[in-house]
Amino acid sequence: MYDLCGARKDGKPLNCPKVVEAVTPTETFSHKIQSLCPTITGNVCCSEDQFDLLRQSVQQAVPFLVGCPACLRNFLDLYCELSCSPDQSLFVDVISTSREHGRELVDGIDFYITEEYGTQLFDSCKDVKFAAMNTRAMDFIGAGAKNYTDWLSFMGHRAGSYEAGSPYQINYKTNAVGDIRPLNTSVTPCWDSSLSCSCGDCPSATSCAEPLPPSDNKDEGCHVTLGSLQIGCLNLGMGILYVVILLGIVAWWIQSRKEHSNTTGQSDINEPLLVSTNVSPPVPGQGPEIEEAGKPEKIQDPTFIESSLSRWFRAQGTWTARHPGIVLFIAIVFMILLCIGLLQLQVETRPEKLWVSPGSEAAEEKAYFDSHLAPFYRIEQLILATIPSANESAPYIVTNQNLLLLFEIQAKVDALRVNVSNSSVSLQDICTKPTGSACATQSVLQYFKMDSSKFYDYQGSAHAEFCFEHASSAAQCLSAFEGPVEPGTVLGGFSGTNYTEATAFVITYPVENFVGESGDENEKAVAWEEAFIRLAKEELTAMVEGEGLTLAYSSENSIKAELERESTADVGTIAVSYLVMFVYISFILGDWVSPWYVTSKTMLGLAGVGIVALCVLGSIGLFSYFHVKSTLIIVEVIPFLVLAVGVDNMCILVHAVKRQANKDESVETRVGRALAEVGPSITLASLSEVLAFTVGIFTPMPACRVFSMFAAVAVLLDYLLQVTAFVALLTYDLKRAESGRVDCFPCIAVTAESNDVQAHEPGVLVKYMKDVHAPVLNLPAVKALVVALFTGLFLASIVLVPNLVPGLDQRVALPRDSYLQGYFGNITEHLRVGPPVYFVVRDYNYSTESNQTNLLCSISQCEPNSLLNEVSRAALVPDTSFIARPAASWLDDFLVWMSPDAFGCCRTFPDASYCPPDDQPPCCPEGDDYCSEGDTCKDCTTCFLRADLLEGRPTTEQFREKLPWFLEALPSADCAKGGHGAYSTSLDLNGYEDGVIKASEFRSYHTPLNKQTDYVDALRAAKDFTNRMSKSLGIEIFPYSVFYMFFEQYLDIWKTTGISLLLALAAVFFVNVFITTSVWTSCIVILTIAMIVIDLMGVMALWNIQLNAVSVVNLVMSIGIAVEFCVHITHSFAVSSGTRSERASKSLSTMGASVFSGITLTKFAGVLVLYFAKSEIFEVYYFRMYLALVILGALHGLIFLPVLLSLCGPNTMREAPPNRHAKQYLEVSRGAEEVTEPVT
């Protein structure tokens, strides 16, 4: 073949099928040939026009390969030999010709090569990356070829009209016949030192063998192997400990039975003495305590604080009962003043302000990224998917019918308009436009330039399938915004790169994002997003379902909007929950004996609920004065919390007053004595709760911190009003009942006969506690069983706690009927690419004196352990690195763009101004489908010669001068490395003239992240990777992705949980020590509370409740509520007299009914209603956790704690006569201390 004889109808030149002798080129022509084909010397078999065509043809592939000099050299040599080799006739055979305008033209050839040559050629290029698309260059210049035959077959295919590729068919063959001598020139390996490629482009090089790809660094934990069984160290340790404890319990029980037998025999001998002293015989099963009773009683004086509190409350209660009106007036005025602050109420709904610490590293990195580069765009998305039939997979979605449906949907989206501040806003007004006026919509329709009129011109779905394989290499596949669209981002439901298996269209609309403090910067976008969701709900869904497909949709504002809707979705459920507790309070506070309309306490219960409401409003109002924003969790949870705490105190106060049976005393005296009796324990419980919540202020998470502040103040206000305002209301109610006035209608007085209130008799619950519950718990066998069961539960929970999964499933946080439920399901099922991840480099020094360029890049001459080479290695193990592909590198592309080898990229006119590639204006007239060689840019030359570069790298001045050119250069077929659009926001050029680029990013993608743990692990892996790279390279690097800021909390969620719980427990401990001055008593309380909390965490693990901000708040709150189940029983035990078992029985008789009816059942009734909540987060994090807390608290407070106190409780605080026989004294004291309990 020699010279050009004509062209195809589309203008592509064709060779002449001439057989001529090789010609001697002119000196100028020879220099041109040597610049491109250095292996061809002497005579050549091509004309200057033919050579110019060669140069023009190969330059489209050069930008893909120039980063690997060896590959580029081998690739160019292949076509140099085909076009200009003097021995061309030995390995090229023209097999077909065509005629145009009377001239014969080449239409097909056989090109003979050896297998060795083909294999070596492919091996030198197979791993070369194309950074702009984060994938292999072979995917574009070889359609993803896996071997040399596939690659050469693709390159030799005759291109269709106006398609890129060969103008005639080239058949590459290895089976030579006759005089044919296959081409077998030398091939330069990619690791050859003369033309070495980077490790990213040539991982098989010896120098690239180390370091190895990161290994699986997941911590499997400590295990012990026993035969074929592998047991965790924690499981084994807890098991051994439990066996030891069981052995100790059995030994104690055996010893107890021996002592019981001895004591029983001794009792028979002493029976006459017991009878003569009128002391009751021993209770069966309580032998050890009888022996203990025979010992001198260890009695300690009441503490100063305990006695001071009792005296204070007696005086305060008496004064309040005498001046209830004054107390109520002061309380109401005080609360009104606090509630006035509600006029300045502000509610914070922005997720980043709720769940991200202001000092968060991820938040600071996001702020840096937003300010130096560009905020990550807003995402609006549609997912259309086919529906699988029975026992069959979902059908292929890319059909003409579905594509036409997609055009109809797109037309409706384009036509969508909203009015914002008297201006019409459309998608075109707010979308991201990287290269001009076209939106960067990620859709399969981009293969048709988003133009439905081109659908049939481009052959419909067949064109789309063609573009799946030629997304970047074919000009007709470029998008309307002039950039390539990767099939993996617009299709879903396929495996690997088998796009013909796709079962979903993924349409993504990137919208400009603006970041500011006010939150109103995106007003136009938010308004359009709301209209977009309405369109999807009201029109698009019906359209799609009518075609037998499904539609899922979402906008950037969707989660926020749905969370706000959720906050009101369960108002009714919460109201019913409070109503149930109110009804129960009214029932439990009253006596309900004849006449019931007098002894009931409905008004008192209603007033108590009103006090709770005032406390919540007062707390919110107080902080509103100081401009502390409230949150939805405060509005939803704190009323429930304060009501639960307040009800306990109300029940305890009312029951204490009822126990003051001497009606001859005045109401004021009885109220004072009742408050003196229970005031210290109420104070102890309330202060413990307040401090437990106060320590939450030190939690870095804003939502938890604000919740703790509001809750602490609300509980404190509730306590203050309970011992003042509620006592005043209780005084009024007592006087009302004793004067025979009707509840709820106090103006109505009943007759004397009707007012004959029956005497109080112990209720069923009181009798059960005294006659059944307490005696059974005092049996040694029962004690042993209780300790064994509760210890086993505690140790089993310790084993379960590590199984708690950090995270908060977004679907749980949303209403059950939210459209986002289906969207997140579709994301998991169909998406095959994860969120983008950016590796951000601070203060990159590109000056000649610095080696940082080679420490970052991944092309030839870059360091083997450079950042981008390491990213490529990490992408080889996506299961552990969570990096899906090599990073798109502006630095690599810029260096390639500047290279003299990329002769179609960085070019200058003779006046040294920028000259674009030949297929761009002004070199090619705008609008032409095919650019023939013109005169406009014929004199353009490369920006630099090799001699101008410094060891293959630009000098500081060259870098500084050409970087803006690169960022403004549009990519095209002749130079795919242009940085405009792809890298426009990848660098911060402010101050770059000094040789330092303050911020730049290299973009990759995470693997698909389908679970909460995937997001946490991906964040942890990215941070570990950049920390390692920063330390290794001495360059500050950090990872950034849009979800990092919200998931960073889970990296330290265990630490946050542990610190919060330990601080809360410490606060409760010190309050107990301060008030009781008994370290031992405080330890018993803390042990019981700790067991409740650990058991609750065990239930969380079994009930699939994840560990997150909401559950941490609930765990801290559980400590405060658990105090209620413990301190009243413990305080009653401490002030009772007798043996430990007798005092435990008395505490159950005195406070057991109040704890069960006033604390357990009240919370239980309110919690049950939450099961019917519309929001799953209420059902999971409030119903499940509160229900478990109430059950565990009641079991520990009413069963385990009394048993523990009976075994090792503190000494009594009551004074005892020093010289009285202990047994007689305790029996007499027991009879003297019998009290009448209210009916419950």
Explain the overall architecture:
- Mean pLDDT is 84; it is low at 211-217, 267-297, 754-759 and 1215-1240.
- Helix 22 (571-589) packs parallel to helix 25 (632-659), helix 25 (632-659) runs parallel beside helix 27 (702-738) and helix 42 runs antiparallel to helix 43 (1176-1208).
- The chain contains 44 helices and 24 strands.
- The protein is elongated, with a radius of gyration of 41 Å.
- The chain has 5 domains: 3-205, no CATH class; 309-342 and 590-744, Multidrug efflux transporter AcrB transmembrane fold; 377-563, no CATH class; 764-803 and 1052-1212, Up-down Bundle (Multidrug efflux transporter AcrB transmembrane fold); 835-920 and 940-1007 and 1009-1050, no CATH class.
- A hairpin with a 4-residue loop joins strand 5 (129-130) and strand 6 (135-136).
- It has a 4-stranded antiparallel sheet, with helices on both faces. It has a 4-stranded antiparallel sheet with strand order 22-23-18-24. Strands 3-4-7 form a 3-stranded mixed sheet.
- 52% of the residues lie in helices and 9% in strands.
